[in-house]
Amino acid sequence: MLSKYESWLQMAKSGEVITYHEGYLGKDRFYDYSTRDIANLFMRAYENKTVDLFQKRVEYGNINHDPKFQYIAKKL
C-alpha cells in the first residue's frame, strides 16, 4: 500500500490532491503499521516542501467515539 503513495508523490503534478487517510490519525497510527508508515511518508514530504497537508473534519467526536477526519496532501 505504501508504494501507491510513493508513486503518487513522484508522479503527481502541482495542485493535485490525494486523501491518504480517513479516521483519527493521531490514534490510528499507533495501531496500524501501514497507517503509520503512510503518515510518516507524507510528513517527510511536507518537511521537504513537496506537499502541503490538510485535514477536513468528517464527524465530530464525543465521549463514545473519536472524531473522524480526511487527511489530504496537495502536491506543491
List the helices and strands and how they pair.
Elements lengths: L1 H10 L5 E7 L1 H4 L4 H15 L3 E9 L8 E8 L1
Antiparallel strand pairs: 1-3, 2-3
Helix pairs in contact: 1-3
Task: Give a structural overview.
The protein has 76 residues and is α+β, with helices and mostly antiparallel strands. The protein has one domain. The protein has helices at residues 2-11, 25-28, 33-47; strands at residues 17-23, 51-59, 68-75. β2 (51-59) and β3 form a beta hairpin. The radius of gyration is 13 Å and the shape is globular. The mean pLDDT is 95.
Helix proportion range: 25-40%
Give the total of domains: 1
How far apart the termini lie comes to 22 Å
Give a count of the beta strands, DSSP E runs of length 2 or more: 3
Largest sheet: 3 strands, antiparallel
Strand order across the largest sheet: 1-3-2
> Which range does the strand content fall in?
25-35%
Shape summary: globular
Number of helices, where a helix is a run of at least 4 consecutive DSSP H or I residues:
3
Report the order of strands and helices. HEHHEE
Radius of gyration: 13 Å
Identify the quaternary structure here.
Answer: single chain
Low-confidence stretches: none
What value does the average pLDDT take? 95
